[in-house]
Structures
1.
Amino acid sequence: MRKKLAKVVTGMLTLSMVFGNCVSTKAADIPCATLEWDTLYQTIDGFGLSQACDVYADQIYEFGKRDEVMDLLFSQENGIGASILRSEVGNGLNMPTIQPDPQTWDFTPYKPEQWVMKEARARGVEKMMSTVWSPPAWMKTTGKITSGGRLKKECYQDFAQYLANYIKGYKEHHGVTIDAVSIANEPEYAAMWQSCLWSGQDFADFLANNLKPTFEAEGLDTDIIVGEEGTWTDKRLSEVYANSQAMEALDIVGGHFYHGSPTPFEQAQQNGKRVWETEVSDTLHSDTGFKDGVKWAKYVHDFMTKANANAFLYWLGASYKTNNESLIRLKEDGSYIAAKRLFSFGNFSKFVRPGYVRIGIEENPYGNLYLSAYKNPETGEFAIVAVNDGKNNETIKLNLQGITCGQLTPHITNDRYDLQTFSPISSVNGEYQISVSGYTTITYTGVANTAEPELKEWRMKDTLDNWDRISTRSDGWMLEGNNPYNAFDHDLSRARRTVASAQNIVYKLDNMKEFEATIYYYKVLEGLRFEISQDGVNWEPLEYMYEAPMLTGGYWEKIIVKPVGELPEGVNYLKIVFDQGKQAWDKHLSNISIN
């Protein structure tokens, strides 16, 4: 809009007008959800991705805007704040190995890899995980790094020492702490790239007899990860679960999500082992849009709520891949595309930090809306992640059980916004009404036991259930009750034009100073005017402002309009004019409050 009509303030994308009760006199029945502060589930280890592995460290290291891309991936302030970095234990193919033959140890720096590791750590990464795709060729039955093969039985101890020296050497020679090491990547698959086959018995024997004793002898407390099959399953680990010494050695059970469904690894969790989803991507499609983004948010939600996973990792952070293997698509011309899945993944990684605990909330309170909630038990900070993977706007009442919280701050990813943070909204009597537009992910952050802000008192409120509070109006109006796509947040009575010409509504109240009007508009806002008068005869145009529009449903958007500054002395009349637009119904006045 032109400046003479409006001053657009980039600020808050509010969830909804707050009415306070689960059933409002104006709105239809609205579903309710309750956050249960004292209902505890799994502790979150983090959300992460791979970058310092194979050729992908080189790609970002040599990229002209590498610092910008690293910020997007790992900075909480300037990006999604990924807290886990998954790397590869080099084996001599694409990345050097620290032991090219039985007699040689070589810790010559590999600059791209170590640069990525250090830069990620500097941006806040809390856990460095390294996975073995293949041991060095000389340790394998085939003598090759690629196409499967197995670790020679006589090399089990060599391999255990190799991993111990890798951890120690990276700390000593490169200043990099490895927090967790995984024995094998996709141990069921003899891939044409670097790979090695392992059975469950192989894992059990190696853990119990070699790796754990070696780590203890070397004084290492690095977490040990086993699993990482391409399908989300832990069936291969039955021999590990049956071996008490192997179980004592094991810290984390990992898995990939190229097949299967996000179900819990019950034996692991019953034995106090953490569960990480350590790799997933989409190699078949090329889509960077908002529907793909919300699809991935729903996958993360399912792993948190159905599999009770402690961590979730995407495959690649940034690469030149033209499919969906990475969150950021690097381009040969030096530019890049930040896919929507980067930001919807960030709705978890940026706000649900390591050490948070998942807490109770209805996971699917209505329609296509999915909720999960997490708290920091030390500080009282918490996050609610809402995922709407359908086309309809979804509206619920949210109650808090076990805490009070006066305000929630929304952080929104959808077709229009990328993790944009907006001004807080306030609760009313401990309750919020929240709306999540179609194909949108929103994270609401708050702090437990903070007071509700004092509510503004209004001299007059008109919810447009009838025409009783209006002083005068032109002929071309009706009260609309239709609510397609829930575009109007269950508000079933609004004023809208019946003819595509200028129509006005006038309110009279002595000495008006301020107002707030909720307006819905379709796609583009045209022809909205406000005018003021002392006598109802002579009118002046009024400059107004509104905060960032809220996408609702079916291409409708919502704004809350306010005057720019206090109204002049002696204003007794306020006129709202709907003009222009391609359809008579393209603007709706939902409610207005006046002082």
2.
Amino acid sequence: MADRRVLSIQPESGFYHRRAIKSIDKEDFPAALKHLRKAIAMEPGNLTYRMDLANTYARMGLYERSNLEIQLMLHQGRTPAEALFAMGSNFLAMGDYDQAETMLRTYEHVEPEGEYIDQADEALNYIAECDYETELDRELDELSMDGKAALDAGDLDHAIDCLERALQKDPSMTYVRNNLAVAYSCVGDMDRAWENLEIVLQESPLDVHGRCNESMFLLSEGRREEAVEAVRKLRLDRIEEVDELFKYCLALADLDLDQELSQALKKIFLTSPYDPSMLYLCGVCQYNQGKVQESLRTFEKLAQTDPDSLLAQSGARTAAAALRGEEAPKRLPYTFDFPDEVEREVDAQVDRLQRMEPEDAAKALQDADAGALVRAALTGSDDQMSRAIRLLGRAGGPAAERMLREVLLSPTHNAYYKKKALDALRRLHAQEPFYSLQDGKLVLVRSRTYTFDAGLPKPYLRIMRDTINRMAQRYNEGQAVEFAAGMWAAYILYLDGHYPKIRNEKAWVLALDGFYRERNGKSVDWRALADEAGATLRTMQMRRGKLMEAEYQIRMEEGQKGEEET
């Protein structure tokens, strides 16, 4: 009898793409994402697959993730014109009409006979009908959006400056005042935080953002019962806006109110069934209520939607262990911080890849688990982010280049790390152009020339003088003058002519002094400096971060100037 032989059939990328299209037709979007990722892994250069991935995210309501996938394609010369239309549609869905109009008009210019030209016309007509009635309306909208983008990115001084300028022009903007209260709380100025919040609650006692902020402030002061009372003044059946539901769910999670959170999540999933942060809270909530099987399914759904989510993987492992009767915690924390064991995995993976030869590290980054750990390092501590960017710039390869571009397009990374990522991409000779998010807006990265303006506001001059006087008491006076004046000038140039209102001048003086000591290899107790300045540790770390950004930017400018002269 002849031996039976089995032919080995390896599906091609088109096979998975066809399965993805069938899943999309059935509105099984997590399955579609899984198939599209397989197709892209087999044929990375296929832009049709990548556009379908972006469109799938858009159909799931994940417009920012959809735009990220498109923005990562823009440096490729063969990017289809429909990508511009897709980005315009996403911006329109997010309510950013200015950027939507820019993208849609660019699409019409590039592809005047394009497939989506009629839809683009309709969208532009809609935007025109919704346009600002006055230039003041436009200015207020820009200030409020820039302030919120700066708040999200941790640029608190700029956020406060934008939001205060908006309220000076229109004190009735409740949304802006809520954000201003949060910004003040982040810099530790609770007097001003409460002052702004009380204005909100006097005018709108059931303002969702206001009551949730009140709960957050009370909880930070250790007044948990009052915080619970504040959030329970709200009625779920009267909360309809998605952003208000998001805020409400986060407030309930902070207070460990499992039952109320479960009901709120059910309502939010009627309109946003795939939001990663809400899916994670749902998985934790189900676990804490003893619904471990449901929790496991939720974490698995999150892992399908966001395969890079280490929180999803950690939650799924914990739920699976509990189902098997193994040792597992009784409750999971409602926090988006990584567990200690995951932090150790992240550090170990970065260390392991740093010890490899560049070509071996580039190959290892193609592995999904290794890539997820490095991507997690890019959202971790300052040390983790710096090490991860250095690793990616040394290793190179498609996975490293994508992650570096993601840093440029991240709304939460500050300018310092974006510049480090840009520098790494240029060393890798990655394909230009490079795009970045600045104040929430997509911009083409270009080098800028700075000029020093001697007509500085008096607080800026006082900080330079006081820093020199403080440092001259311990160091060589010439060194103190050179460093303090040099670093403060670098920061002023970095501001590019925009001088936010200075708050807590002493914190700036101590930050400059501490930064000098760090640069000379001395250990610095930033918590002690914060206490001396009457500021929070976070405020001092923000000052330090701004000086790092300024120093890096000036060095980049000097390096480019030297190359041009050579």
3.
Amino acid sequence: MDSEMKRKWLSYRKIFAFIAIISIAVLAIMAVTTNGYYRENPFTDASVKELTEGWTDEKGNLITFPQDADLPAGTPYRVSTIVDDFMSQQGYLLFRTDHTFVKAYLNEQEIYSFGKPEKIKIGKTPGSGWQLVSLEDAKTGDLLTVELTSPYAKYAGVVRPFIIGDKSELISYIYWKGVALTIIALIPLVVGIGLIVFPVLVTSGELRKKYLQVGITFLIIGCWGMTESRTWQIFCYSANYYWVQMLSFMCFALFTPAGVLSLKCMGYIRKEKFYRILLPVDMGTYVLLLILQLTNICDYFNSLWVVHVMMMSNVVLLGIQYFMGTKQNGMAVRVRGVLFFGLVGVGGVLDLLDFYFWDYFGNGFFCRINFVIILIFCGIYATRRAFVAYGENVEREVYEKMAYTDTLTGLGNHRKYDSDAKKLKQGEDTATILYADMNGLKPINDYQGHLIGDKALQIVASVMTEVLGEFSDLYRMGGDEFCALCYQKSKQEVIALCDQINEKLEARSSDFNTPITISYGVVEYHGKWGDDLSECLNWADQEMYKNKKAEYRRRGISRV
């Protein structure tokens, strides 16, 4: 594995390590926080129990939970029971509500309240969540009453089963009821963070932008999933559910434009014109919903149908354009698109049926399944793109190596020198320039042939590379001329190294029956002092030429 491949592999390993660390950290925080509650509220021998019977409404009718009284919006619904021995011993009552104001009374004395109408600044909902009512002061025979008031007809008169138990047991109950939804929410949350953070470090340009856009989408999905899973209440019982609900709505309404952005990045939107129309329409609808919400013209819950219509219409339009735009592609591409949009569309339809008619699975259940589907297809797309990008990088590296490498010696060529010299000048760094010319190549070529001459050039390149070592870039400038940019080496050190090069070359001269050495010129270049690199290279060339003439005079050779 070469150094470039090794560097890329290390970058990918960092990405995987980061995502793994974030995942472990989140799970650790969940475990530690939950354990903190356990320490404060140790387990008892009692078990959690659902109270589905033994309650009456205001008219004295017996009720079995879950219950839907089908009341008009805003109508209070009161249910009551007599505290028995088991209830008085457990300490806490737990139940879940959706967009409902809650009050609990013990012998008609208020002991619990959730949501204050005067504190609801925008919209009408106090939020949704688990209600944990303390019954520590309750005694056997006391009258326990729970009053539920929802501003929406969908939830007015809806009562879910009450659960009685120790506080720590009930917290554990919340955790396990929501653990699956929490995990589904954590996946896009962690993926989103990874896609946002790491491309900034390891990519650039358009690719970084694409990763960022997809990452933001998954972050939005993760935030919505966490607010909707209700498990977050384990960590922050003092949180303002109302603002959590607002965050949930904002993320949910933003799904469609963010999803369109991601699908464009993933290649599921083939027509640029279609994308340029659809995205502004979705964003405009989203902004309009926010304005209506902020001005209290329209409550967010009453405008959810707009979001649902927007989501389903986008799925249909995107599915049609993808299918029509891939007629020229292979069957596998079209099947993949049909499968993707088909699964997402079916999930959306099932969620709408459950929201408006069934109310069985819970809001957004199939949407969460859709997110997993999107993650899977994102993974498939990312894997395919990674292989394509890897192939393109390998091909580009091969061409770059061919363009910047001298094929005979393996050193950089003149084009490579020009590229490195440009970087050196821009960086204002310091380097020692070595310009060398091989002695003895002409007689070898004339009397032994050019193949032997090529071998001699390869030996010179090999010896120079070996002696100059690291922090030196070597180039064959053409013919028998060589150049080196030596970093962290002074002029005297490079001259000493050149003498070592000649010693090694003279030891190899017997292979050619002709002395082979190098004549060289050495000049220091200081970019920060304003030196001209081209001028320094010319000085090194002139010094080399003088040394070469002196060497030829020493040997009695009249022709250079």
